[in-house]
Write a structure and sequence with these properties.
mainly alpha; two-stranded antiparallel ribbon; 14 helices; 6 strands; 55% helix
Length: 364
């Protein structure tokens, strides 16, 4: 806390806020690290985390007021903070709705961000959160012995080292964008498996390099993996005697069909090896032949319902509506299907494509 001399009664005699340029009303905030010109903020700009040039939202600050009786034990710091909280409620509804959205306390997003407060660039629970407990009962007095004084100084030095470690960890988290860990993990999954394994190995070295250098290193290796994979593909084409990309497309398609046939034959051999009952083997072969020939629409319909997450009753209602409209108009377009079925457009497209493929409806 700090104490300033009172300004004049004229409101224009007060210094302006560096954030919104409005004239300050007590209490207001003074940055303890920016100088020599005082960097002053109103409570609204302070809660928004206003930053300007060298001033950052995580700087130390002082609450400035001219009516704070420091020497009066009847006025506690708790009462002062309650008064600050009351002053902060003076924001109008329009000003509140203009604020950028921030996660509320104990919300899902707040828990995903480990209690990070964006406006203050700080965490609700710090690393080594109870480091201050070792200092709460320490008091330097004149009649301390040399040993006791040295012991207290050593405790303070240990506390400073713990604070440095706390700041170092927070800086790594901010610089590398690790505040929302779930979002960071989702970005990692976009990479191929080789790059994900490289991410896992190199994560421990991120603390010794900057975020830009670390990202460049990962992106460079991701490009290397992609180039190696492309080179191997071109070498396979050359071994097969292919010299044009048009022939490569045909080769890929034929190779895919051949691989599917080989896989089916392998599965059949495995089944025939373990099945000793000839009757059961004949039933299995008949079932596989029916599936390959498309005679089992019930199975494919169940698969569609599982894919689009619809109960069979709802699917049958949607199907009947589309069939009726198709018979009435002699055809059906996707846009018409979407107007008939009021569900997600992606689910409507899958149902529409499935009915087209099954021959139940035809395109207009």
């Amino acid at each position: 806390m700090d104490r300033l001399a009172s300004f004049g009664s004229d409101p224009f005699d007060k210094p302006p806020c560096r954030g919104c340029s409005s004239y300050l009303t007590e209490p207001y905030i003074k940055c303890a690290e920016c100088g020599p010109t005082p960097f002053l903020l109103c409570l609204q700009c302070f809660t928004k985390g206003f930053e300007y040039k060298k001033h950052e939202s995580n700087h130390k600050y002082e609450i400035m007021t001219s009516d704070f009786p420091v020497l009066d034990p009847g006025w506690t710091a708790q009462e002062e903070m309650q008064d600050v909280a009351y002053q902060m409620r003076s924001k109008s509804r329009e000003e509140s709705t203009d604020d950028p959205p921030r996660p509320t306390f104990d919300s899902v997003l707040s828990r995903d961000m480990a209690g990070y407060m964006p406006a203050r660039a700080d965490f609700m629970e710090e690393f080594d959160n109870y480091a201050e407990w070792d200092l709460k009962d320490i008091e330097f007095v004149d009649d301390d012995s040399d040993v006791l004084h040295s012991l207290k100084v050593a405790v303070v030095d240990i506390y400073h080292s713990r604070l440095k470690e706390r700041q170092r960890r927070k800086k790594i988290i901010r610089d590398h964008g690790l505040i929302n860990l779930r979002k960071f993990q989702m970005l990692e999954r976009c990479y191929p498996k080789e790059v994900q394994e490289l991410y896992e190995v190199m994560r421990r070295f991120a603390r010794v390099v900057g975020p830009t250098e670390h990202d460049k290193f990962i992106e460079g290796h991701a490009l290397e993996f992609e180039l190696r994979r492309e080179i191997r593909r071109l070498q396979d084409y050359r071994k097969a005697g292919i010299k044009s990309f048009c022939s490569a497309k045909v080769y890929d398609r034929v190779s895919h069909v051949r691989e599917e046939e080989r896989r089916k034959r392998s599965m059949l051999c495995d089944v025939l090896h373990f099945i000793q009952d000839g009757r059961a083997c004949q039933q299995w072969l008949s079932k596989q032949a029916a599936i390959d020939s498309g005679i089992t629409p019930v199975a494919t319909t169940i698969t569609l319902c599982q894919m689009v997450r619809l109960v069979p009753g709802a699917y049958l209602e949607y199907k009947q509506a589309l069939l009726s409209e198709c018979r009435r108009q002699g055809g059906l377009r996707l846009a018409q299907a979407r107007s008939l079925i009021k569900i997600d457009v992606n689910k409507t497209r899958k149902i529409y494509d499935f009915l087209i493929k099954e021959g139940c409806i035809n395109k207009a």
